[in-house]
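Materials and Methods. Structural model of Acetylornithine aminotransferase. The 463-residue sequence of Acetylornithine aminotransferase from Streptomyces longispororuber was retrieved and submitted for structure prediction as follows.
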Amino acid sequence: MSVPHTRSFTETDVQRLRRGGSLHFNHYGRPPLPFACVGAQGIEMDVADLTAEGRGRVLRLIDTSGGYGSACLGAGHHVVRHALRRAVDECGYVTDELGSQERAALLDRLFGPAGIWSHRFPAQDYHVSGRNSGSEGMEMALRLVLESRFDARRLRHRPGRERRDTILAFQGAWHGWTHGLVPLLNRRHYRVGLPAADSAQEFGIQVEHIPFGDPDSLATFFSARADRLLAVVVEPIQGDAGILLPPPGYLRDLSRRCADHGVLLVADEVLTFGKSGDFFAMADEDGPVPTDITVIGKYLGMGVLSTSMVIARRGLTVRGSGTVATSDLRPVTCAVIHDGLDHLVRGRLVEDSGALGDHLADLVDTGLVRRFPEVFSERRGVGVLHGVELTSRAAARLGELRTELIRAGVYVEFMAGAGKRSGGLRYVHPTMRIAPPLVTTRAQLDEIVDRIATGTRTFQSAG
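The predicted structure was written out as tokens:
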């Protein structure tokens, strides 16, 4: 199979791209990939090879990452282009201190009497705020949780909430890098060396972790600690842990326990939003699973804006001006969200992604996991969010595998994996995430798996 190539860059172009790469802060603690995107359209992108042997050659790749899971319509979509132009020309730039016609139109479309999410979040029960990113949305959710036990007028605990000093999170979870969220991660690498939460201080807090998706661990924790529990923070499908799905009934049981014990339930749907065959993954065969706070992001910005939305029960709020943000549902952001979501609804792209995901699952199981058992151990996922876990041997050569996949014409991302977990649960190795945009066709899925197989074959033969 040949991978289509376009023009080559000059040596001057290559040197500029290399300098830019060295100037950009390296977040990963390892050498960056020697490739740079120089253009994109739909689910394809042109990538310059910056290696010595590549000499600036440009490869055309299929992007299975969907822009870090954010570009549900791919690149250069006409709906997004029109929304941006309309927003700049017509919508103004007011912050949340003034009402906005564009903001009102968006919120009414989502939560009003005939809103697409009104059955899940009725307007009389919920209110909404916008943030710059998923991490900022989760920070605001955490702030709402902490202030729920605080009397801002008297500057002391609310009566009966004095002992609520514990937040429950899950092993392997990922909620963001920011300082307030790091204690929610049970990954020592990210926490050691930073100030820890301290329940011994007035208004202090502690975080406990249990295995995700284990009903017995959940029941045991609530039996022993429910009277101290303030909130539970959960991903309905764990993303960075390796696309881990809970067993049927687990999320509803969690929601019921929280409601019975006066515990707030926070759903982190930053990654899962729009990818599970529904807009929200906090659901089961009986319908939506109730939450007190839901944070959505990634797909929300249609691949061109970094944004998130915090949907919280109206009783949850903060002291005056406590969470004012320049980015709170600005008109330009609202226009892109409104037009993008309207296109998803009219085209049934989210609903149809369920069948698309079934096709992808069959392709991955037969074309990758069964075909390359020395490289891939298991596929997990639903809709357009799938993970293919590496074997321990392949995980040790992850960099080589990524390079071979790119040279085979496909770009994929790898999640860290949940690693070692308690309760006798097995080690979860790094996992290849396949999360293509909602506009991907079945034929393109076939091509994606073919290209991954080609790169894997080359990787395997080199080992």
